[in-house]
Amino acid sequence: MNIAGRLIALIALAGLTLVACDSRSGDEDPSRHTPETLVKITPPDWTRDAVIYQVNIRQFTSEGTLVAAEAQLPRLKELGVDILWLMPIHPIGEKNRKGTLGSPYAVRDYRAVNPEFGTIDDLKRFVARAQALGMRVILDWVANHSAWDNPLVTQHPDWYERDWKGDFHPTSWWDWSDIIEFDYSKRELRAYMADAMAFWVRDVGVDGFRCDVAAYVPIDFWNDVRRELDAIKPVFMLAEAASRDMHYEAFDATYGWGLHSALHDVARKGASVDSLAGHYSEQDNLFPRGSMRMVFTSNHDKNSWEGTEFEMFGEGVRAAIVLTFVGDGIPLIYNGQEAGLNKRLAFFERDPIEWKAHPHEALFKQLIELKTRHRALHNGPWGARMVRITNDSPQRVLSFVRTNDSEKVLAVFNFSAEPRTVRLKEKLAHGEYVEYFSREERVIGEETSIELSPWGFAVFTYQSSTDSR
Questions:
Q1: Is the whole-model pTM more than 0.70?
Q2: Core-most of 176, 177, 274, 437, by most CB within 10 Å?
Q3: Which of 236, 237, 284 is nearest to 258 (CA)?
Q4: What letter does residue 386 receive in the DSSP assignment?
Q5: Residues 417-450 pLDDT 10s
Q6: Torsion of Cα atoms, 151 then 170 then 144 then 17, to 10°
Q7: How far apart are CA 68 and CA 300, in angstroms?
Q8: CATH for 36-343+350-382, among 3.40.50.2300, 3.40.50.720, 3.40.50.150, 3.20.20.80?
């Protein structure tokens, strides 16, 4: 769904005091536990250095089908991505539909595949082929609401909320007139939804879910679902939410909306790089240590409703992309970014991506290789923390180190339209490196000058010979 403007509300949710999500005995004081000790799930090992790739089936190919998308899997494997997130593949409601084809987030049947995309057998082949190539597949899951003409409306009308007039209603405050809201006080609804999710894992073989507006659904439902799905096989769960409590029992990753917003402010509104501190401070001090936040320069909502990455970041787009890979977070690529997608894809109509050669493809390949090679850049509990390093131009240049017992990555970004020359005084940044993109060997000390072009960046790496990765 369109989430423009939702960031403030969801970040507020992230700051709520933890009360009900701790399931320990009643005589144990939750305040004695850090956020880390409350985490009861472990991300699948295959998320260690994973990069997510979002597939908008409707626009991904000229055919707009799962069969056509399957033919692109070898290319995605060559790009280096690991987790394929498919936008909703279910049949779309016709009642109160928006546009010609409707929103894929208006689900008419939770156990079927949209015939415009193909059949359930087509999906099974897509999943099996992706997994054979070493990739994983997660489905977009819409638990908060359904289409007006979902059979559940007539079969179980009590599963839906009612407004003050006693009528079904869309989610409040949003222009989502094509859907109506579920009532999660109904145990039968919870059982139905959990069973439907289990079906796609057990019978189709998917590897997890990206859960739409996850914070609008009670967290105890997600906690229960995660346990049920993990009993089938280890899954990856991504919440469209910014709440730390989601990480304790249900989700491996949540959205890093704050980084996208801060980067937009820096690149387009002249804000200082201190604007980025809010996101990274939140990650360090609010969220459980080692939790994953999905970071991105584009996704379906941003692209369709707010602007392309070029509109959002201008000349700073490459620097923004690089930061999402070398900074803390699990990176997302929206389909078409590797082809320099420079238009807002229609949301309710067919609007296929124009595939063409673009320098961003090589950049993504380089960044994925960098992330894979260096354990310090791995995701969540496997990666190293970011440590900010002071420099001579602290309002316009961001510099930080990520280091572990055998390697160090030093990143320096000039988020301004003027060339900058900076020095790094802190000893943590000093050492012998190779600049990743130029392959130039550098010794960086207290008096070393680092020259950066407008909107330029440098990523310096050190890796001991004993580190086999």
A1: yes
A2: 176
A3: 284
A4: P
A5: 999 999 999 999 999 999 999 999 999 999 999 9
A6: -160
A7: 20
A8: 3.20.20.80
